């Protein structure tokens, strides 16, 4: 796997004054000139790497509406000449030859896998980026890392994939009270310009689309929602994750029917946990009860995490009632 562009350490460079979002383009040009792309004696903040896609659409179970929505957008690349030349979209949609696809929805529904499958279908490598790779504690450095990442994607002809994209695409600060707020807005503004100028596909994935800044929403061509699997797809997922070599009396149809509001990741974890229990007990097979216990534990833990099932109510009571609860005296 080839090494990516190295980002020079902030300690090796003289910091420049922070500029406002209104000077974004000027700042972006300056950032591009200041990025050190050569090996140097200083430490490196990050190394970007593109990779071959790990999944295809044959590896994912998606609801039909989700799959169809993705394929509609990919037509932009698979039939570009027909759309823009024969049908004349090149005249009316000159800026639309590049596009973004936002994959959003519940956790564990296959968004990251779908990003890889998209790159696989297009015969491209994928450059996965999360906030931790480009974020810096130094003012202005995060924007520089973004510029370097986009340059590297161009050089390697990779599809950029922002995983957990809401960390970068979140709403800009309107009431700026510190240099950190200004820096956050600068980063968002620089990213907007980079997206506008990038003449290729960008993929985004998030569990929290409500956190996106409206400016980013407008610049993304398609927003594809990933819903939790329906009963038919839960059946496919249970079948897919329970290996044929595994001895089991599992009733997959019953599991799919009985346990709803679960994701593919939940099913995958339940199968593994059930197998671990069977192995620990030295059981001859992974029993139906093990699968049910595993998925019930996952559902219960999620309910505990979100507070579902806990109900707190309030009511007004008389002074006399309070006295009865504290041996005739009001609490001090």
For the structure shown, list the relevant keywords:
332 residues, alpha/beta, 5-stranded parallel β-sheet, two-stranded antiparallel sheet, 10% strand, disordered N terminus
Protein architecture, described:
Mean pLDDT is 81; it is low at 1-23, 30-46 and 309-315. The chain is globular, with a radius of gyration of 26 Å. Helices cover 48% and strands 10% of the residues. The protein starts with 5 loop residues before the first strand and ends in a 7-residue tail after the last helix. The strands form 2 sheets. It has a 5-stranded parallel β-sheet with strand order 4-5-6-3-7. A two-stranded antiparallel ribbon has the order 1-2. With 332 residues, it is an alpha/beta fold. The protein contains 15 helices and 7 strands. The chain has helices at residues 24-34, 64-78, 80-86, 89-92, 111-121, 131-134, 141-156, 166-169, 179-197, 214-219, 231-241, 252-258, 264-280, 288-306, 319-325; strands at residues 6-8, 44-47, 99-105, 126-129, 159-162, 201-206, 222-226.
Q: Layout of SSEs?
A:
Blueprint: E1 6-8, H1 24-34, E2 44-47, H2 64-78, H3 80-86, H4 89-92, E3 99-105, H5 111-121, E4 126-129, H6 131-134, H7 141-156, E5 159-162, H8 166-169, H9 179-197, E6 201-206, H10 214-219, E7 222-226, H11 231-241, H12 252-258, H13 264-280, H14 288-306, H15 319-325
Parallel strand pairs: 3-6, 3-7, 4-5, 5-6
Antiparallel strand pairs: 1-2
Helix pairs in contact: 1-7, 1-9, 7-9, 11-12, 11-13, 13-14
């Amino acid at each position: 796997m080839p090494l990516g562009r190295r980002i020079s350490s902030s300690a090796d460079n003289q910091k420049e004054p922070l500029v406002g979002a209104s000077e974004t383009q000027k700042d972006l040009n300056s950032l591009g000139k200041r990025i050190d792309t050569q090996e140097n004696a200083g430490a490196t903040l990050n190394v970007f790497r593109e990779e071959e896609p790990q999944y295809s659409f044959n590896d994912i179970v998606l609801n039909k509406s989700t799959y169809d929505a993705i394929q509609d957008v990919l037509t932009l690349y698979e039939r570009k000449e027909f759309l823009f030349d024969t049908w004349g979209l090149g005249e009316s949609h000159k800026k639309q030859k590049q596009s973004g696809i936002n994959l959003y929805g519940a956790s564990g529904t296959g968004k990251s896998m779908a990003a890889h499958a998209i790159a696989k279908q297009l015969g491209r490598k994928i450059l996965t980026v999360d906030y931790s790779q480009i974020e810096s504690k130094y003012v202005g450095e995060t924007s520089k890392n973004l510029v370097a990442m986009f340059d590297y994607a161009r050089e390697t002809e990779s599809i950029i994939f922002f995983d957990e994209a809401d960390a970068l695409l979140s709403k800009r600060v309107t009431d700026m009270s510190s240099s950190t707020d200004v820096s956050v807005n600068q980063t968002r503004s620089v990213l907007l310009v980079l997206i506008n100028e990038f003449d290729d596909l960008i993929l985004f994935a998030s569990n929290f689309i409500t956190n996106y800044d409206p400016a980013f929403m407008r610049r993304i061509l398609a927003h594809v929602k990933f819903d939790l699997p329906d009963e038919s797809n839960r059946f496919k997922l249970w079948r897919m994750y329970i290996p044929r070599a595994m001895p089991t009396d599992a009733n997959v149809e019953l599991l799919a029917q009985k346990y709803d509001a679960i994701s593919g990741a939940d099913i995958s974890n339940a199968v593994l946990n059930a197998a671990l229990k069977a192995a620990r007990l030295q059981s001859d097979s992974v029993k139906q009860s093990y699968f049910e216990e595993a998925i019930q534990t996952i559902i219960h833990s999620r309910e505990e995490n979100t507070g579902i099932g806990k109900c707190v109510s309030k009511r007004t009571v008389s002074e006399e009632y309070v006295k009865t609860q504290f041996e005739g005296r009001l609490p001090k």
